[in-house]
Amino acid sequence: MQNKLIQAAMEARKRAYANYSHFHVGAAVETSQGKIFPGCNVENASYSLTMCAERTALFSAIAAGEKEFTRLVVATENGVSPCGACRQVIWELCGDIPITLVDESGACTETSAAQLLPHAFGQQDLGA
Q: What is the third-level CATH fold of 2-126?
């Protein structure tokens, strides 16, 4: 299934709307039921309104009623990791899931949400 997830992230990257940064990102999240939800970054002239690929994929899955995730893939030109905001959202919605970072050649780096966001802040910190 991981190859399908990587392919979905790489395909989503092609659909990114990155007219300002020209940095195309694709992501794909897999649910516990084996469903795949892709996402791409969508930029806006007002940068604060930009949405990252990781959050697009996760929010689409949540909107479809999914709540349990098993893996996330992020595809970029050079295999960089998610931004801080995405790391926090990944932790909140997925917990410590495996994350694959893939570059445009298909080379992969394996990591996890806990590795990307040590000492994560979550609901337990709010007494929820």
A: Cytidine Deaminase; domain 2 (3.40.140)
| Domain spans, the chain | 2-126
Active site (catalytic) residues: 54
Residue-wise pLDDT tens for the chain (128 aa)?
579 999 999 999 999 999 999 999 999 999 999 999 999 999 999 999 999 999 999 999 999 999 999 999 999 999 999 999 999 999 999 999 999 999 999 999 999 999 999 988 876 665 65
Both tokens assigned to 110:
């394996």
Q: Please tell me the distance from the alpha carbon of residue 27 to that of residue 71, in angstroms, as a whole number.
A: 11
> 9, exposed or middle or buried, with CB in 10 Å at 0-12, 13-18, 19+?
buried
Residue position matching structure tokens 């990155």: 18
